[in-house]
Amino acid sequence: MTTSRVQHLVPAGVVLGLAVIGTCLSITLQPADSFQFPRVISIFFIILAIWNFARAALGMAKVGGGIDMGTAGRILPGLIVMSVAVFWATKALGFYVTCTIAFFLIMSLYAPAPHGEVKSWLRRAAVTVAFMAVLYALFAMLLQVQTPRGIFL
């Protein structure tokens, strides 16, 4: 097994493992009606993860050669924000409040607009409000799924 194949096989295996965990949780958790949307998404996710893992195992995934430490360093702040949001803040603050804060922080970290101008902060705030309006319309109104509740709903 070549180094390139291992670089594709390890992430594909991690994604497949996450897909299996997500699918098992969406099938076994109660109340079943609350997990109908995650169940559908997780089934598509596991199908794509199996396909991705098979391509990596057969050596068909030949794109890229991994990421360097500079790229990993640029990705790390976003991963930290999302990890805090997913594993702590959502249960404490609620889904919509946590998503608003996380989206605003990530956009502030990665958007090329200067941090010293009020206009760029107003644009970030407007984009965050628009994103959250779409997210609310999608989950609460269109799909009618239960989102995690917290102190601020």
Describe the 3D structure:
With 153 residues, the protein is mostly helical. The protein folds into two domains: 1-66; 68-153, no CATH class. 75% of the residues lie in helices and 0% in strands. The longest helix has 26 residues, at 3-28. It is flat, with a radius of gyration of 19 Å. The termini are far apart. The mean pLDDT is 86.
* Overall geometry: flat
Termini separation (Å)? 50 Å
Kindly give the count of domains. 2
Q: Mean of residue pLDDT? A: 86
Structural class: mainly alpha
Number of strands: 0
- How is the quaternary structure best described? single chain
H-E order: HHHHH
Task: Provide the fold topology.
Blueprint: H1 3-28, H2 36-57, H3 69-93, H4 95-110, H5 118-142
